Structure formats: C-alpha cells, structure tokens
Amino acid sequence: MEKPIQKRTLATRAKLIAAGEAIVSEGGFDALRVEEVVSRAGVAKGTFFAHFRDKDALMERLIGARLDSILDALSEVPAPATIDAMVDEMLPMLQFMVSERYVFDLILRYSGAALIDDIGPIGMCIGRHETVVMGWLNADGLRRDVAPKILAEGIQAFVFQTLALHFCALHSDIAIQSRLRSYLKPWLLAH
Amino acid sequence: MEKPIQKRTLATRAKLIAAGEAIVSEGGFDALRVEEVVSRAGVAKGTFFAHFRDKDALMERLIGARLDSILDALSEVPAPATIDAMVDEMLPMLQFMVSERYVFDLILRYSGAALIDDIGPIGMCIGRHETVVMGWLNADGLRRDVAPKILAEGIQAFVFQTLALHFCALHSDIAIQSRLRSYLKPWLLAH
DNA sequence: TCATTTAATTGACCGTGGTCATTATTAATT
DNA sequence: AATTAATAATGACCACGGTCAATTAAATGA
After folding, report:
1. Does A35 contact strand D, using a CB cutoff of 7 Å?
2. Domain of residue B2, residue span
3. CATH classification of the domain holding B25
4. Looking at strand C, which nucleotides approach a protein CB closer than 7 A?
5. Which of A51, B16, B99, B183 could be a cystine partner for B158, CB 3.0 to 4.6 Å?
C-alpha cells in the first residue's frame, strides 16, 4: 500500500485550503461557500468533493488548524497551580470556540469523533487538549481519588457546558471564566 | 395584545405536525423532508414556513414532545437513593437522545437556548430535566458543599459528555450507564 | 349585504451543498 | 514513442431548505 499521490493532487488541495482560509479571514467561518472556494482556487466544484468528503471536512481542517496553534501555545505553558490560573490558560481556546456560533456547533458535532478509525482534525485537537489538561492534574490540592482521565474528560464536559450556556445570555467575557470556575472547583479540588 | 388566531390556522398547524409525526414514525427523524410534510398535509411549501421559522423548529416540536412524555414519567418516579438508581432512571431519556445521531445533534444545538426570550421546546425540556434532577439532590451521602443548581448543571454536562462519547466507540447500552456513573459518582458523592 | 382591512395560503423561484458520467492528465509498460 | 491503466478534474445536474410578491379567504364595519 504505497502512496502514489501525484503532486498535482497536493497542489490542488493546497489551493482549496488557501482559498478557504482567505474567505474565512475575510468574512468568518460562517461565510464560507464551497462555490466561492472553488472559484478562488480556480477548479471545478466536483474537484472540491474529490478532496473533501463534504464542506464540513474542509471546515474541520480550517478550524483544526486554528485549534492546533492555540494548543501549541498551551502546551508550552507551565502547569497552572490554581483553578483560576487553569481557567485563564484555557481562555484563548474558549474564546476561539465561541467566536462564532457556527464554529462552536461544528466543534461540538465533531468533538466526539464519528468512528474510531475516522478521527478528524477536531477530534484530534480535543484529544490533544485532554492530554495537556491531564498533565496539569498533579498540582497540590487537587483530588486524587479519581482517575486523571476521568477528571480530564470532566473538564471537557464543563467547558462545553459553559460555552453552551454562554450563548444563552448576555455574554460578557468574565461570565465564561467565572462559570467555568464554579464547575471546576467542585470537580477538581480535594475537599 | 389579543390572540385573533383563526381556527383555520390551528387546523393547518395540526396537519403539519401530524404529517411530521407520521413521517418520523415511519422513517425516523433523519428522514423528514419539508416537501414530504407539506404534501402529506395538503398545503403549499410556503405555508410550512408561515407556521415554523425553519425545519428545525418543527423538529424541535416533535423531539420536544417525545422528551416531554419521557419527563412526565420521570417526574412521577420517586427520587433515586443511589447514583446507580439515578442513572437507571435517566436511561430512557438517554436512549432516546442517542436513538439517532441527528436527534442528538439537534438536542445539543438547541439545549442552550439561543435567546432568553426565545426558549424553544428542547430548551424547555432541558430546564424541566434540570428541575427534576435538582429535586433528587437531597439523598443521603450526596455532597452539600455545592449549590444544587451547579450540581444539576454538572449532571447535564456529564450526560452530554457521555452521549457524545457513545457515538465514538462500539456502543453497547451498558457502556452509557457505566460511563455516566463514573462521572456522577465523583461529582455527586461526598468524600 | 357589500366594502375594506387583516390574516393565511400559494407556488414559482433561488441559494447552496453534493453527485456522477464524461473527459483530460499523468504514470507505467512495451 | 506509442499503448494502456490508473488517477484527477470537469460541469451539468439534482435535492432540499428557504423566500416573497401575488392571491385568496376570513373578519370587521357601514
């Protein structure tokens, strides 16, 4: 099972992704249209779907790329010593996730990967995040009676809960942080 | 601000909902097409959108109706004394939520209502569920150091987390229950 | 009962995601 | 270089959600 991918293929895919990025940077993820992507890339519509299963697949790549660069920064940072610091460090990721309703919905839909062998870019990022967070759980004062994996999954759950509620009300930035803290303290702190 | 709704209006809406229910009962929620709904109801397409903001709005009503009847049963039941019993009692709701990927996605999308004054049927159901669950939190052995509202919201978060992960792997029914238990015990039990 | 205002219905039309048989390119073989 | 096999690209076409100016029916007032 070799990989006889011609470089024409790579070039075309790169053009599609570049076009997608350009559109997103101009009008946001919500504004992306497949027809606009192919016209900018100078290819036919059918070509798009030869490279991406559907529109969401490109969306996943674009959003996954953003998440990856946020995670790159996150994994450089020292482990936070307090819940407050933990929330602060996660803030950039949270802010990106709620930057557009469309983005949040898509992340939500793909964060639980569809199939085991078909984990997409977003699923990968969620996994990365879980790994990073799991590395934080040795701090003093955190509970030891629950497996780190479970704790990390719980953090994910509370992140999504927080962001979902964020879209309900008059959302100030401070609300996200304080709400998340109010979940994470009872979840993580030994008491 | 009276309510001069002619009964023709109610009749039309009822026909649309009945048609929707029939389609769903035959082919599932995923199989519902607006054109099929209007043709069965014997009205024009535009009429549909005079009664429902969009297709999702009908979907919300249909799914909300199912959830409501499940919640009716749930609120009759005595408060569970253990986490295991709690999970067992929630099981019917969980099973419905994962009965179709489409259903889960839609519930997820609308569980955090979009606007304060625009809480849809699904948002209402989530609220009902929260209320019911909050009533369970006086059982012996449950922690008292966290506000019941936060605890109940946390339960919601873990339910969604559990169901999202359910779609990843080889999902047996038992997996849902045991995974949810593994979250709820550290979340709810005094320790 | 007719005229007028208000509300409900209609269906042609559009935007956009996605398909697929056909055609064009590239790689492999002689 | 010519032939063939495999891969990529094309664009007309379809499915389906959603719109809106025009039409019809119901309520109201004289």
Report:
1. no
2. 1-52
3. 1.10.10.60
4. 7-13, 16-21, 25-28
5. B183
Are B115 and B27 in the same domain?
no
Residue range B18-32: mean pLDDT, rounded: 98
Which is more confident, B172 or B150?
A: B150
Question: Where is the domain boundary, A9, A28, A52?
Answer: A52
A55 touches strand D (CB under 7 A): no
A123 and A104 in one domain? yes
B169 shares its domain with B120: yes
Residue B139: other Cβ atoms inside 10 A: 14
The identity of residue B134, as a single letter, is M
Interface of A with B in 135-174 (CB under 8 A): 143, 145-146, 150-151, 153-154, 156-158, 160-161, 164-169
Q: How far apart are CA A191 and CA B125, in angstroms?
A: 33
Whether A118 contacts chain B with CB within 8 A: no
Work out if B3's Cβ lies within 7 angstroms of strand D.
no
A2 CB burial (10 A radius; 0-12, 13-18, 19+)? exposed
pLDDT digit string, tens, across residues B50-99: 999 999 999 999 999 999 999 999 999 999 999 999 999 999 999 999 99
- Cβ B179 vs Cβ A146: under 8 Å: no
Q: 3-class SS at A98?
A: coil
User: Residue B109: closest CA among chain A residues belongs to which residue?
Assistant: A105
CATH number, domain of A145, equals 1.10.357
Name the domain count of chain A. 2
Contact state of B153 with A112 under an 8 Å Cβ cutoff: no
Buried residues in B20-51 as b, exposed as e (16+ CB within 10 A): bbebbeeeebeebebeebbeebebeeebbeeb
> Given this model, what pLDDT does residue B115 score?
60
Cα nearest neighbour of A104 on chain B: B109
Residue for token pair 């940077």: A25
pLDDT digits (tens, 9 = 90+) for B90-137: 999 999 999 999 999 999 999 986 565 678 999 999 999 999 999 999
A66 lies in the same domain as A154: yes
Residue A139 pLDDT exceeds 50: yes
Say whether both B176 and B88 belong to one domain: yes
Residue B141: burial class (beta carbons within 10 Å; 0-12, 13-18, 19+): exposed
Does one domain contain both A17 and A92? no
